[in-house]
Structure formats: C-alpha cells, structure tokens
C-alpha cells in the first residue's frame, strides 16, 4: 500500500510537471525515470514515456527508454514493447541508421529478437541504409536476448546475404556469444578467419576468449591464447591478468589466482582496484574473510580506490559471516562515496548490529539510508520502529 501511494503521488506530481511549459526536457526525462522505477502498470509506463517526449538524440532519454523496456519485459508486456518501439520509429527525425540501431538493441533487451531481425530486414523500405554498424547492433541484440543460436546464424548468413564486411566489433560480438553459450572451442576457427581477413584481434578479443576457456575449464587453450597474443606482439597487460584472476576465483582455484597476483608484483607490474576486487571476491566466497579484509586494507593503503562492486561484495559476505562491525565500517565508507549495497544486505547489516548490542550504530545507518532514499523512506521507518529501544 505504501509503495502504491508513493507511485500515485509521483504520478500526480509528474502530470503537473509534464504539463508545464516551463519544464525543461531534462527535468521531464528525470521525472519519467523516477516514475518508471516504481510503476507496475505497463500502460502507465508507456504513457509516462510519451509524456516525457523522449528523443533519440538525448543520451539521458535513451537511458530512460531502455529502462522502460526492461521494466515492460519484467512485466511480460511484450505487445507493449513492440507497439512502443514501432511508435517511436514513426516519430519525426527517428528514421535514421543511428536510431534504427538503438531500436534493434532495445528489441533484444525486451526479448523480442524476431522483431529486431524484421526491423533490420526492412530498413531499406524505411529509407535507412543497412551497414556493418546495424549488423553489429543486431548481433549485440541477440547477446542481450541470450539468443545464442540466432547470433551464430546471423553471423554466418547475413554478411553474405546483404553484402556486408564484418569488422573487429562483429568478430568480438560473435566470440562473446560463443563463449557465453559454452562454445569457446569454436573461437579457434573465428580467430583463423580474422587472420585470413587481416583483422587484428584486440585485447578485448583475447579477454573474451580467455574467459570463455576458463569457464569451460579448458586451461590448455588459455595457454594457446597467450601464445597467440605474443605472435601479434600484444603485451599481456593488467586487463588480461584481471580476467584470468577473476576466472580462477569463480572456479574456486584461489591458489592459482594468488600465484598470478604474486607474479604481477614480481614482474614489476602494478595491480589495480579490479585485481584486488577479484581476489577479495574469491576469498569471500571461500569464507576467508580475514584475508579478504587484509587485501582490502592493502588496496586502500596503496592509494587505490575500491569500486562499488568490491564494497558490495565485502559488506555482503561480512554480514553472512556475522562480522557486522567490520561490515558497518566498510559500508559507511562505501556510502560516503555515494554507493549503497542492496536493500537485503542493508537489512541484514542493521538487524545484525542491533542483535549485537550496536543499536545506536544500526539507527545511524538507518538515518543515512532515509536521507539517501527519501522516496522509500517508509521501508526504513518500519525497520527503525522494530529496533530495540
């Protein structure tokens, strides 16, 4: 009921905002975003987007458009997605290659890959040129929709069918699709084709394939990729080390991940915040929280700023390990940077502090959350009322 009342009040406020001639387009877009976050009625989501007058030229508008599509997909309102995208394509100034590419990607985001393909097919009828950029958008759309069979079919058929020459982005996208779907072994033939066509792989190419081989625990082919990088005179930099360390941590092979980390240091290479973040994640998953905390402190002492995901991981696992005092300290540091762990983690932290006679600390965190998230402060009001007096 509280959320419903909140949405109703937001809707009333934003109707006044949308109807005002003095309101800027950015204000309308931000207002639309705040409504979409809470709204559960798909028709109202579409109405809000219409009222905001979203345009393809604005980056912020495209973010709101994508957010609306994601919400409509969550609500399984696929007819609404289709109608909304078609309607937007018919707006003045929207018949362009750039906007068609955006709509193709949005269809993938909405889980409507068949419509993305149809839009790609009929682009010439709409006066829009098909080119490798729109082909890459279609492949990326398949990635978003996790339509890995389609991405492979399109890659094999469409360049020949439409007279398009794949570029590096095309190959990187198909490699991502293969590696995401357990087909990393096929990367060898893709890389051989790239060599025949004189398209040099990038660091992203190798990072994708190496991660794919690790996910399939094919360590021999990881070694082959590192040798291939040497063939192309490509330095194995920190980004590749980070991919390897992260992959090993996901597999639970902490000793190997730590050995790579030690190798970075002995070679005079500097680890970055992601290197530490991946190791912290690995140690947290194994319940080795003291080591994870020590690595976090080492990272900070080196002057490296932890990323939000590193904070979230550490706070979550410290709460799981009932080390609420350490979780609270790190969480407050996290919040001072403008980042807040998810509601479930924060509830666990508040209740854990209260259960360990740290009620004042729990209340202080609740107060910070209420100030930070005024729109859903009622959730934290209820939690605060349930804390020991």
From TrEMBL:
Each PPR repeat, start to end: 167-201, 237-271, 272-306
Domain of life, source organism: Eukaryota
Keywords from the UniProt entry: Repeat
Entries under NCBIfam families matching the protein: PPR (TIGR00756)
Family of the protein in this entry: Belongs to the PPR family. P subfamily.
Protein's name according to its UniProt entry: Pentatricopeptide repeat-containing protein
């Amino acid at each position: 009921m509280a959320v419903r009342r909140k949405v109703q009040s937001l809707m009333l406020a934003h109707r006044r905002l949308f109807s005002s001639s003095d309101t800027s387009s950015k204000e309308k877009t931000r207002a639309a975003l705040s409504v979409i976050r809470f709204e559960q009625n798909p028709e109202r989501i579409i109405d809000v987007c219409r009222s905001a007058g979203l345009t393809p030229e604005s980056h912020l508008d495209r973010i709101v458009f994508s957010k609306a599509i994601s919400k409509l997909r969550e609500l399984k309102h696929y007819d609404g997605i289709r109608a909304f995208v078609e309607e937007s394509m018919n707006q003045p100034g929207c018949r362009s290659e750039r906007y068609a590419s955006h709509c193709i990607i949005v269809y993938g985001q909405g889980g409507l890959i068949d419509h993305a393909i149809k839009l790609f097919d009929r682009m010439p009828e709409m006066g829009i040129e098909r080119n490798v950029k729109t082909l890459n958008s279609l492949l990326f759309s398949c990635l978003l929709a996790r339509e890995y069979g389609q991405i492979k079919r399109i890659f094999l058929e469409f360049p020949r069918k439409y007279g398009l020459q794949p570029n590096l982005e095309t190959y990187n996208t198909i490699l991502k699709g293969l590696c995401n779907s357990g087909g990393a072994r096929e990367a060898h033939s893709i890389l051989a084709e790239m060599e025949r066509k004189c398209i040099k792989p990038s660091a992203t190419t190798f990072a994708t394939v190496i991660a794919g081989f690790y996910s399939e625990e094919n360590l021999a082919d990881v070694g082959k990729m590192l040798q291939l990088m040497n063939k192309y005179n490509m330095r194995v930099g920190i980004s590749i080390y980070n991919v390897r360390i992260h992959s090993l941590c996901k597999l639970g092979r902490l000793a190997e991940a730590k050995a790579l980390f030690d190798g970075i240091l002995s070679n005079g290479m500097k680890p970055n915040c992601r290197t530490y973040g991946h190791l912290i994640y690995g140690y947290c998953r194994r319940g080795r929280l003291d080591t994870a905390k020590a690595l976090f402190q080492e990272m900070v002492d080196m002057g490296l700023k932890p990323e939000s995901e590193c904070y979230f991981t550490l706070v979550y696992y410290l709460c799981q390990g009932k080390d609420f005092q350490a979780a609270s300290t790190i969480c407050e540091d996290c919040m001072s940077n403008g980042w807040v762990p998810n509601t479930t983690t924060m509830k666990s932290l508040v209740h854990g502090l209260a259960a360990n006679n740290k009620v004042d600390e729990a209340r202080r965190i609740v107060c910070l959350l209420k100030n930070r998230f005024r729109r859903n402060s009622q959730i934290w009001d209820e939690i605060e009322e349930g804390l020991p007096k």
